Amino acid sequence: MLDPTMFSAEGLLSALLKDGEGNLNWRRYATIIPNYRAPGDRDYEESRCVVMLRYQRMTTFLRHSKGPRQGHWWDIYGDDYQSPELALLALLEAEPPRCLLCHTDKLEGGT
């Protein structure tokens, strides 16, 4: 049985989010927002737990396909992942946004 006290949150996240050698570390631009309210949401609408990726002037949100594709993709609207833990799992499964891949030279420099 794993003892949760053996792990620090920082160390665990660092290990989970580390991309392999030669890969882009694009996940460092992602943010999990547990109580997100979109601009224009009405007061009666509930907040959502979303994954947002912001890079330079680009903002995109993670979505989950409920159809035959059964995966994650990036869009201007984000799906509710219900908890930060589920959002983190989705981020780990997601591929980098296509619009981010055209900036690979800037990503490697960390700017």
Structural description of this entry:
By secondary structure, this protein is an alpha+beta fold. It has one domain (24-109). The chain has four helices and four strands. Strands 1-2-3-4 form a four-stranded antiparallel sheet. A hairpin with a 2-residue loop joins strand 2 and strand 3. Residues 107-111 have low confidence and may be disordered.
| Dominant shape | globular
Overall pLDDT confidence: 80
Number of helices: 4
Fraction of residues in helix: 25-40%
* Rg (C-alpha, Å): 15 Å
Spatial strand arrangement across the major sheet = 1-2-3-4
What is the count of distinct domains?
Answer: 1
Distance N to C terminus: 41 Å
Order of helices and strands: HEEEEHHH
Sheet with the most strands, sense and barrel status: 4 strands, antiparallel
Q: Care to give the gist of this entry?
A:
The chain is of the alpha+beta class.
Task: Outline the secondary-structure elements.
Elements (H helix, E strand, L loop, with lengths): L8 H9 L12 E7 L11 E8 L2 E7 L7 E4 L8 H10 L4 H4 L2 H6 L2
Antiparallel strand pairs: 1-2, 2-3, 3-4
Question: Which key features would you list for this structure?
Answer:
23% strand; single chain; globular; 26% helix; 4-stranded antiparallel β-sheet; alpha+beta; 4 strands; 111 residues
